Amino acid sequence: MFRATIDAYLLRDSVEILSVLVDEIRLRTSSDGISVKAVDPANVAMVTFNLDSSAFDDFEADEGEIGLDLTKISDILGVADKNDKVYMELNENSQNMSINIGSFSYTLSLLDPSTIRSEPKIPQLELPAEIILNGTDLRRAVKAAEKISDHMLLGVNDDVFYMEAEGDTDKVRLDLPRDQLIDLKPDDVRSLFSLDYLSDIVKPASKSNEVVLELGQDFPIKINFEIANGIGKVGYLLAPRIESE
Amino acid sequence: MFRATIDAYLLRDSVEILSVLVDEIRLRTSSDGISVKAVDPANVAMVTFNLDSSAFDDFEADEGEIGLDLTKISDILGVADKNDKVYMELNENSQNMSINIGSFSYTLSLLDPSTIRSEPKIPQLELPAEIILNGTDLRRAVKAAEKISDHMLLGVNDDVFYMEAEGDTDKVRLDLPRDQLIDLKPDDVRSLFSLDYLSDIVKPASKSNEVVLELGQDFPIKINFEIANGIGKVGYLLAPRIESE
Amino acid sequence: MFRATIDAYLLRDSVEILSVLVDEIRLRTSSDGISVKAVDPANVAMVTFNLDSSAFDDFEADEGEIGLDLTKISDILGVADKNDKVYMELNENSQNMSINIGSFSYTLSLLDPSTIRSEPKIPQLELPAEIILNGTDLRRAVKAAEKISDHMLLGVNDDVFYMEAEGDTDKVRLDLPRDQLIDLKPDDVRSLFSLDYLSDIVKPASKSNEVVLELGQDFPIKINFEIANGIGKVGYLLAPRIESE
């Protein structure tokens, strides 16, 4: 059983967060809320997503798993105004979901969860450096790097968080000292990341005032932020690229 | 003889209404105003368009027929501001039309009307159901249907006007009961239409507060609305598609 | 030595003015400011550009020549907000330029000036007619002409400046009498120009309230305007096309 009502804009943000890495998801439901874990087809990046039942206007759910095509939901949400409510109800027998937005009613066929890639095991990583910054600062740095290169170095040195990209002949560097960050737990670390992934991930993150980065030396980066005033949590994990000297 | 002055925005709307179905028109002129009847190349949809002489700032015309390329007029109107006046004058001897917009003067060569498809005979249809609704409601329904399918069912059942589209696996339905419509003359009818056509037609109609639909059982649909505060009248007729069960 | 600070928007406008004709420039520096002379690859149009040292917040330069890739600078300026300052400093030993915008620092490799096309000799032309008009009027005329043809006639007749374009069948003409111009030194002249070039040149010129055109009979046109309240000067020279009767 799954029956829920939610703001259209919050559902749309949630879909965008997941669409960055995958087109189809296994949505896990429980009486506490909904959650998703997914890994991109190339096994380079993971996302974990949780939205508490309190983010919904109404919420009733059993433990379960629902297979969803994100592109279709995104299409359906196209008719919604920002302030519309979306009502969803699972029809277990017919394996579809009813979705109502205003006077519109959709019947969306579900995917068989067993045909969707299994949930990844999220590795337990202890990453020594932590940087908390505004999402727009992160996005500007990534956009600047894209003009120069297809990968980007993120690091901490003394009390400065830096992002650096190097092309064949040119270089760009952004230094954000502690006083331009929200918080910093420094450690001498640096890792290189693919801008293909980073620029996609940074789009939803850029809406957040507080993005938490966890960095290690040539280790994956964790990018965490909250949505819906903390009722929802998003975590990306992106593998590093090997630096060729 | 044909000489007329008209608001640029009204001429632009008129061109858009006709361009939905055809690129070239036979413009019929008389002392009462202008009118066009046209059918699309595939014979699936027709448009009738009338604009009374009172919609013009100045208007003088004999009975006549002028062959016009709508794309060219649309290009010319690109230089006009919303509040500009457009002055047009037929030069019968040289078979062209002078068009003045602000300090710009155009000389537009005319098409020989005999090279343009003849005016269609508009069939006399008695359609039992009539639905009057806001143009934006109609457009939202068509946009929702396009995400799911390439055709769309329009029907009336009891006191509810409904629009439904069904894809291979998914379905969308919009129910508008009488109290969400401007007016309804109910009758148990339904017809299926191609979204290719419907979505084009609905664009100009969506600007109107009152769009009148006339529906029958597996019959063409009439879509009528007014422009320029009722001084102009637009009627589309769209043939139904066969429902394959 | 070259070290300068300038408003991002002014640098962006300068890059746009030059990019219309060339991708790479030899930037000439002196204690008075910067200047560029360039000719397009097809030898049809030239640009001269001067920006006085007083247009900069800080400016220190020796006589010199710097080879720049305009596309790269334009990319870099993508991160700047309208009110950002751009700090540039030449590193003579490493043949690159440091560019700082906010917290961003770029290292831009320079081009060897000897690999860039030489500065053109600007011909001394005495053109009898001079028209001073608003840049937006010029741009509207060029846009109207583009809909009809790929070349455009500019001329003066009595006290009227006119622009005319003729397609296979249609014609557009804009007459601007003296009272719709800022100033006019009349002379009976006309020349034909390629709209390919004219429409590019007119884009930056359209931002200026006063564009000075100098015209002769089948001679090149000079298009001059100022930027930064007169601290910068821009001059385009565009060769005429032969009129085929």
UniProtKB/TrEMBL annotation, chains A, B, C:
Q: Which InterPro entries match?
A: DNA_clamp_sf, Pr_cel_nuc_antig, Pr_cel_nuc_antig_C, Pr_cel_nuc_antig_CS, Pr_cel_nuc_antig_N
Keyword entries, A-Z: DNA replication, DNA-binding
Query: What is one Gene Ontology biological process annotated in the Swiss-Prot or TrEMBL record?
Result: leading strand elongation
**Location of the Proliferating cell nuclear antigen PCNA N-terminal domain:** 7-99
Cite the Proliferating cell nuclear antigen PCNA C-terminal domain residue spans from the record: 121-240
Highest rank taxon of the organism: Archaea
Sorted alphabetically, which PROSITE patterns does this protein's record hold? PCNA_1 (PS01251)
Query: A GO molecular function for this record?
Result: DNA polymerase processivity factor activity
Q: Which PANTHER family match?
A: PROLIFERATING CELL NUCLEAR ANTIGEN
Q: Which family does it belong to?
A: Belongs to the PCNA family.
Q: Which HAMAP family match?
A: DNApol_clamp_arch
* Function recorded in the entry: Sliding clamp subunit. Responsible for tethering the catalytic subunit of DNA polymerase to DNA during high-speed replication.
How does it associate, per the subunit comment? Homotrimer. The subunits circularize to form a toroid; DNA passes through its center. Replication factor C (RFC) is required to load the toroid on the DNA.
Q: What is this protein called?
A: DNA polymerase sliding clamp
Organism whose genome encodes this protein: Methanohalobium evestigatum (strain ATCC BAA-1072 / DSM 3721 / NBRC 107634 / OCM 161 / Z-7303)
Lineage, highest ranks first: Archaea, Methanobacteriati, Methanobacteriota, Stenosarchaea group, Methanomicrobia
Q: Which gene encodes it?
A: pcn
